[in-house]
Amino acid sequence: MTQSISPNQFTEILSPNLDTQIEVKNSIFRDFLQETLALTKRLFIQLKRRPSSLIAGVIQPFMWLILFGALFFNAPENLFENNITYGQFLAPGIIIFTAFSGALNAGLPIMFDREFGFLNRLLVAPLASRFSIVAASTIYIITLSFIQTAVIIIASAFIGAGLPHLLGLGAIALIVFLIVLGVTGLSLGFAFALPGHIELLAVIFVINLPLLFASTALAPLSFMAGWLQIIASLNPLTYAIEPIRYIYQNSDWSFASVVMNTPWGNFNFVTVLCLLLAFDVVILLSIKPLLSRRFA
Amino acid sequence: MSDVITLKNLQKSYGQVKALKNISFSVKTGEIFGLLGPNGAGKTTTIRCLTTLAQPDSGEILVGGVSAITQPKQVRQKLGYVAQEVAIDKVLTGRELLNLQASLYHLPLSLAKKRIDQLLNLLGLQEYSDRQTGTYSGGIRKRLDLAAGLLHQPQVLVLDEPSVGLDIESRTIVWDFLRQLKLAGTTVLITSHYLEEIDALADRLAIIDQGEVIAEGSPSSLKDRLGGDRITLKIREFANFEEAQKAKEKLSSLSFVEKIIINQTQGNSLNLIVTPKSNPISKIEQTLIENDLPMFSISQSRPSLDDVYLAATGKTLIDAEIEASNNRDLKAEKKQAMK
Fold this sequence. Notes:
The complex is a heterodimer of chains A (296) and B (339). Chain A is built from 13 helices and two strands. Chain A is mainly alpha-helical and 296 residues long. Chain A has one domain. Chain A has a two-stranded antiparallel sheet. Chain A is elongated, with a radius of gyration of 23 Å. The mean pLDDT of chain A is 88. Chain B has two domains: 221 residues, P-loop containing nucleotide triphosphate hydrolases (Rossmann fold), CATH 3.40.50; 75 residues, Alpha-Beta Plaits, CATH 3.30.70. Chain B is 40% helix and 26% strand. Chain B has 13 helices and 14 strands. In chain B, strand 7, helix 6 and strand 8 form a beta-alpha-beta unit. The two termini of chain B are 36 Å apart. Chains A and B meet through helix 1, helix 3, helix 6 and helix 7 of A and helix 2, helix 3, helix 4, helix 6 and helix 13 of B.
């Protein structure tokens, strides 16, 4: 090994730190921020060196837009809603479905960390809170979702869906954030609770497409059978899709606009945002015991 | 010296399997303590409980006077942990991994940089530090893992099977490093199923078998406690039990023979304990000849840690190892490790 080190230096470098006040000195908030940023950085380094997931993540919504758009290409103009083409109808659905799919897969890297033993490195460390693991994943997925959303919005503009105003874009970002936060939390909960990646993939597989078809992403509520209308009106995706669709179709929208009609009432923009927030809070609270449990 | 780690009556079951039946031992400040036992004896489960990865069903764990069960976060700060299977993110470079580790232990940025440079230098890792860890050999990975475990200057460094999968050169480097670490005042707790490793490194040890501590002390005191010299006698390369039994009866009458165990898993060889300095080999040979018994090989030695293990369990560590590996349920173990 290295010869240039004196015995004194050995002692300096290898001696234990017996200062028991370390924890008291640091603030919990700063610790949380530090560990979250470090974990986020790791995810982005991985993305930089293995960018295929991002590339696929941008190509896929394109294909949805083109294929689903072509599927209903010859549908009568006024079939869906007043004076809009299916392409215009579809864009908000694809934005949310793409963000949702990305977030639903957030648990996979954690599951692989568990299987390879890397997660133990995090679990034996004195983390301020294990929610930093959730926070890092959310920041990562949010960034990917925003890139994907931007691509979908631009592509949709080219196929004639129009482009919302800046405030509208901000509102879309907020809605994407809220749905991603909740679904990422859910996925990480699964990653901590399920026995392995096979089971996690199975759960993702079972949830992913059915939630798409049981939402208003591809067709409006009025097209659906009565029972599916009820399910779609309980589906968080619908609560994210409808306000975005409203923004797309009404440039004069406001926070008081009624953006959703469900069997149990009409909701305005603010109510829908609150419901999405409530969804997030419920998910995060329910995965808390999974995060803090000491495994078996 | 004071105890830095105390484990008291630790018990833990996975379903029907009692992984830890009753584990108690203590580690003194500044020593290298070895946890010796065959695979499946409960070493890793003990370590998982100590490092707060697993929750024992009952018992007490104190690290520096703090309970790992009620105050896990404080205990995590005091411990450095080097797992058996080196868990590194192959995409990160060594330096990136250490930076991540430093942030998980909340080192201030300037201190983190200083510590990382010092440890990379000390462990001879500078030339590897900016390569992705996926390109590292086993020995380099282990060194990186040592650096990671020591970044926050823990009171105790815990290593689970530090030399499994290492070539001899890397193993020597790790051993020398652990000795340096001890000289600098850091307590070291290692688990191993290699007798030589514990014999070479440990100031004191506990032997674990089937979830229980069966002996605790310094290697020399454990050996001394056994008393006499060891003789391993094979009448044939693979003798049958009856013949071995006959030899045992005849040899028992010799005055200097204290005890004879027939080791059935080693071709029914005889393990004799004899009074030290009794010059026994020629007399044993003579007794065998008088009774028309053959002799294949005979050797005499001071008691080893293996004898300590043999005396406590009635089998050698190697046999226990083979037995354990036959009974292993790898799938179930993988599941436990992931939890």
